[in-house]
Amino acid sequence: MSSRFAPRSTPTRTTVRGGETAIPQGMPRQPTAARTRTWTPPHPLNLGLTLGPLRRGPADPTFRATPDGSAWRASRTPQGPGTLRVALRADTVEAEAWGPGAAWLLDQLPQLLGDSDTPEDFTPRHRLLAATAHRRPGLRLLRTGLVLESLIPSILEQKVTTDEAYRAWRLLVRKYGEPAPGKTPAQLRLHVMPDPRTWTLIPSWEWHKAGVDDKRASTILRAARVAARMEEAVTMTPPEAQARLELIPGIGPWTSAETIQRSNGAPDAVTVGDLHLPGIIGYALAGDRTADDEEMLRLLEPYAGQRHRAARLILLSGRTPARRQPKMPKTDIAAL
Question: 3.40.47.40, 1.10.10.10, 1.10.340.30, 3.30.470.30: which CATH number matches 148-236+244-250?
Fold first, then answer.
């Protein structure tokens, strides 16, 4: 199917103190004709559970859910920016896409919705997980095929509260990204995240205003400068992909796991180094709310190969301990 697309806009630059810096993107793209696709998954599918990990907060400018049951996603694909709308009608997925990346997004639709996932490889060994898996047959582990769009927000989430990370992602994408292509509802305010070069040109004071400390900002800059090498990780096995990401100083096992869970659909990429997850896993599987990473991995050992899926099911089970320790304090670096 052919369609015409508006030409890709070029980010405006200016010079500050002898060097280039990114400034907000220019005019919104002109509406383009939509490409469409329908797909009937050969398995149960819960759209919200499957796509939920892509949402970075209720005001994420790259992902929105609407009351009609649609999920909207703005992405920077290998072919350029694209907007995808997905809805599940009866047993059929209906999708529309706009922009230079539209064809790529539609080609990847089954993978995005977990078609390559293999939940049949998961054998529950605890009654809690068996019951949750039975109640949630439509849970699939997604695979975006895109690394940076999950890596950068994961870096922003390092060692801060989720609210702080979501705010930084929202401010930076809206200011330095670009309006999503296509005829998207105006109230969604969808934006495509900045391209790698634009990330590297964001001035230090803008990171500061978004609440991002120098360590996280520097890690994002290092990753953006080798974006092509980072994106190659989608062709690798999950362990190889994590090793590739962790070559970047500032990216450790927590960040690499959070990334490839989304980009590669990795069913065994359990998140270590998380503040709350070990206690949740320990409480659900052994009644131990004080479990650390070592104990969490020991408890998940029966699910080797499917440990991320086991963790997702535990989080969906509702069996989580009451939080006794104080929440992580917010840090206002703009006031420092």
Answer: 1.10.340.30
